[in-house]
């Protein structure tokens, strides 16, 4: 297993606080997959407004976290170092559960297609083994 801490993640993808939504990568294979985690705390900025009476992590930010994990997989390939992976589309997205403070969010993205700079990742976010978000993410490396 290949582990990456926050400093190593920052060497691969351009995201920074407060928009870097991955705390560590547990395992990855360049160009194939990455498995990462976000430890969700009550101190996240988005909880101030989403929702003050019942804090829930916004679904779009969960999709972004999955995309960042996928970006680690694709941008860790030698030929993609120093590049950016842009969103090209989100398909088959399903929100199946809430993410709340205290959750340890597991983020898994597997690259299922790639042709030139375009590719597709199959992404699943889960908490305690229960899928909370699934999606197919299209990206373009540029």
UniProtKB/TrEMBL annotation:
Pfam families: FabA (PF07977). The keyword Membrane does not apply. It catalyses: a (3R)-hydroxyacyl-[ACP] = a (2E)-enoyl-[ACP] + H2O. The keyword 4Fe-4S does not apply. Keywords: Cytoplasm, Lipid A biosynthesis, Lipid biosynthesis, Lipid metabolism, Lyase. It comes from the Bacteria. NCBIfam families: fabZ, PRK00006.1. This is 3-hydroxyacyl-[acyl-carrier-protein] dehydratase. It comes from Sellimonas caecigallum.
